[in-house]
Amino acid sequence: MTVLADIERSVRAAAPHALVDVVRDALAVGYGASFVRLYLADYGLTVLNPVGEGGNEGALPLSNSSEGRAFGSQEPHERQVRHGDEVDHHLPVTVRGDRLGILTVRLPQERSTAAVVEELSRVAVLLGHEILVAERDTDLYRQARRVNRLTLAAEMQWELLPGRACEATEYAVGAQLEPAYAIYGDNFDWSADGRSLTLAVTNGMGEGIEAALLTNLAVKALRNARRAGIGIADQAALADQALYERFRGAQHVSTLLLRIDLASGHAQAVDAGSPQLWRQRGKSIERIGLEAQLPLGMFEESDYTAQTFQVEPGDRMVFASDGVYEALSPRGDVFGERALARAIAATSLLPAAMVPDAMLLELARYRDTETADDALVVCVDWFGPEGR
Question: Of 144, 203, 312, 361, which has the fewest Cβ atoms less than 10 A away?
């Protein structure tokens, strides 16, 4: 415990850009580590990129590496170093369900005990928390998350997002956008307090920077209304007014809002546009039929009504933007609701954090990339107040 406490104090006192260096030095002194490296998952969830190495040198595939297996399983993974008596320990760096990357620590064989691995896992979690705080003051970790240059629209969208996953006793959320480096109009947002979980999926019309600016205004308007403590119908109405005052109906945003009461599973939804909501309950997969209401900003002073339904423990809900179910194959065939239901079924054994990326990979194999719209998937697993 003394070693862990010393490491924690050192990391919390470190300069934002020096977290990895401080952890490396502390693990060398405390555990005899001869090699320490932090990898962060890139925006497209294709590789693990080393932090502070310069460029993309040393990037590892998520799909075919020991580090990638630890990232996918969210369990420590070890591998014997060739021609030596040392062991590499690959430890998930995850904050409240949001999978950031992997911390690799090389230890002597005799120090590689279960107790030490448990302590190193706690160091990895601490490092993840400190990275999220440090990102306010340094670009180092955001730079490590990219293997290509982001478009300006994509930069704006990723800065607006809450994360890619979140877990609590009652639920788990996972989300992903594609194309990750050139997204423009699609966006997701969530927030939870002690009473409820609120989610929003938005799709601003248009392309490029104009779509990103439109979506940015819509998300900020929804957040402003949500933080005033009002219901989702009024959140939609206030965001609608903000958009109409700016664009006078010339541009609008498709939005789907969902609020779930954490104690009861009672859900409210406002369907103001194209995003779809699907539910998997046991082996049954169906689209939740919601009353279609006007997109935000289309007309002046639109009224919105929240519909209600019940979410049961074990339910999985999936949001999909029109870039998913309206995607076209090279032959011009629509992906459609049937293929979307099959994709939900095919990912039913995956945790919520992994579902969106798996579904979007399936979509990528299907669609014509030359005509592809941006696409968004959000997955919500509901456990209820008793948890898993």
Answer: 312
User: What interhelical angle do 2-13 and 114-134 show, nearest 10?
Assistant: 20
Q: What is the DSSP letter of 111?
A: G
Q: Which region among 83-97, 140-154, 163-177, 365-379 has the lowest average model confidence (pLDDT)?
A: 365-379
Query: Rounded distance, CA 276 to CA 159, Å?
Result: 24
Given the structure tokens 């109405």, which residue do they identify? 237
Residue 168 in contact with residue 198, Cβ under 8 Å?
Answer: no
Band of the pLDDT at 111, cuts 50, 70, 90? Answer: very high
Q: Which two tokens stand for residue 73?
A: 């399983």
Q: How do residues 241-256 score in pLDDT, each as one tens digit?
A: 999 999 999 999 999 9
Question: Which positions ≥6 away from 39 have C-beta within 8 Å?
Answer: 48, 49, 50, 51, 60, 67, 101, 102, 103, 104
pTM (predicted TM-score): 0.94
Is residue 271 within 8 Å of residue 291, measured between CB atoms?
Answer: yes
* Alpha helices (H) along the chain: 2-13, 19-31, 66-73, 114-134, 140-144, 152-160, 208-226, 232-247, 322-325, 336-346, 355-366
pLDDT at position 362 over 70:
yes
Q: How many residues does the chain have?
A: 388
- Res 329 pLDDT > 70: yes
Residues 273 and 323 sit within 8 Å (Cβ to Cβ): no
Q: Which residues pair with 281 in a beta bridge?
A: 284
Burial 348-371 (b: 16+ CB within 10 A, else e): eebbbbbbbbbbbbbbeebbeeee
Asked, as a colleague might, if the bond just before 162 is cis with ω within 30 of 0, I would say: no
Give the C-alpha separation, 101 to 70, whole Å.
9
Query: 52: burial class by Cβ within 10 Å (0-12, 13-18, 19+)?
Result: middle
Q: How big is the CA angle at 223 (ends 219 and 229), to the nearest 5 degrees?
A: 155
Q: What amino acid is encoded at 236 in this protein?
A: A
